[in-house]
């Protein structure tokens, strides 16, 4: 065998390579799941350097450079270093690389990384260990799968060895190659041991792309505070246990998203709490209160897994009736104040808790010295209302995250940041499980909290940041570095009952403001006005459809920005739309039969360009699309000057009332079987 595949890479200006190649290799080492969806991740146990002796022989000396894998502290790193050293000594006699792999040699050092690959799915394949050896001088990284023999010693699984190589061709031209010494059929499962075709067709292109497009992230790696191996096992168990919830979901929200998102959050908390019990020598499982619990599924799972606790939300949900009496949920309004403290609770949870989000650390700090918190920010709220941006150099999301972290810091917590694996764009969480001040200073910290809350919304914020020593730019574990434990002197006292009289909780009855409750006549008028505006804009864009030798021209109109569209609409229409979330853009997206909104521009949709649902949609969505076929009138057939761009038999909408079908009712089960 020789090269499995080679990808050419251009590096204009020579700014990215070879540094970008090693960054790409690091992604494949630490986060293989971003390329191989059959893996849930990799736990890096240890890594270290191995000096090369004369003639390219490996010196027996070994130096550790730390270890990963989700916690463990100094003891874990020492154990990982010891194990890697032992492994290296065991394997040295097996490390002669078969051709055509590039052998190790030359000046410098090798770097060895020991990792465990964690398969996804159920039943899951067993985890597999692998030793990756990086040779910077030769531009290679060699992956050596390991298998344990009957004596408990590891051997190199030679049939699954492969090597990734970087070579400089000339000037700005480089190449990235994957090389394997054995043929395709020697490679086994295609999960922890990739098949050669996958290495060639999938991994190689990703490595080439990552090598020149590596961008520093403003966020932590996912699941950086817990054991990835434990998380993977618990998640698969819980996913299997609660998958029936998808079938009985009575809410209008997407069950696939919300069920598996709450399963993932519950998994994270269960693993985090298990490790906390081990650290502190606790036997009793932690208690909790979920503030703003919403559908209550997270509470349901945590209760079922043995944690005593309850969820509180201002509005009862239909699904609460499904859970049964063992799940403790309360319908109540939380007003931050002395009447809503939880002195006997171990953890407070704020999972997409909206206006309560910045209050979670405050309530935890004032409930008891031992109370901890977990918060997953979503919508942007300050103590008194919507969060107002103050820094244009950051994204709004990053700025808000820094604010929530600052609240925890001011409340006296060592704040830790982590990124969850959930189907959401808002995945960053904060954890406060220890204090940075002695219990005797509780009263002084409480005054500091009050002053900080009162300072929000004024120009005193920046001055406050400087005085307490909070650094917004420090995001890598330094969010809570010691900045002086002495609180500020302040004579302001807490109200004694309500901490902020102007606080506005969410309304008990949810107001629907996504344009779906607008009068139908009003919506139809706006749709027709915008469509005519696009169709009459000059120059007109015509699309030709050649079928059977005939050419039919269909006017698709021009595209306009949302701002340009708004400028042509009546002021009263815009005023009415402004009261709805998303306004004009939401209304146009809701009418996706007629419009396509991309990158802030509005287009007339051409249904001839839409891909077949059989190619783009999963089975459930294809079935629902088929059930909805011809249940609504075709807007283009009625209003477009050229009619519909599709013939009647191909259009999913009815060309006239005679084609209309009755929309089927989709019934849902009401109880778990």
UniProtKB/TrEMBL annotation:
GO terms for molecular function: tRNA(Ser) (uridine(44)-2'-O-)-methyltransferase activity; zinc ion binding. The keyword Manganese does not apply. Its main location: cytoplasm. Its EC number is 2.1.1.211. Residues 628-658 form the C3H1-type domain. One of its GO terms (cellular component) is cytoplasm. Residues 50-78 are annotated as: Disordered. It catalyses: uridine(44) in tRNA(Ser) + S-adenosyl-L-methionine = 2'-O-methyluridine(44) in tRNA(Ser) + S-adenosyl-L-homocysteine + H(+). One of its GO terms (biological process) is tRNA methylation. It is found in: Cytoplasm. A zinc finger (C3H1-type) spans 628-658. Keywords: Cytoplasm, Metal-binding, Methyltransferase, S-adenosyl-L-methionine, Transferase, tRNA processing, Zinc, Zinc-finger. Pfam families: AdoMet_MTase. Residues 66-75 have a biased composition (Gly residues). The keyword S-adenosyl-L-methionine applies. Belongs to the TRM44 family. Adenosyl-L-methionine (AdoMet)-dependent tRNA (uracil-O(2)-)-methyltransferase. This is tRNA (uracil-O(2)-)-methyltransferase. It comes from Taeniopygia guttata. The gene is TRMT44.
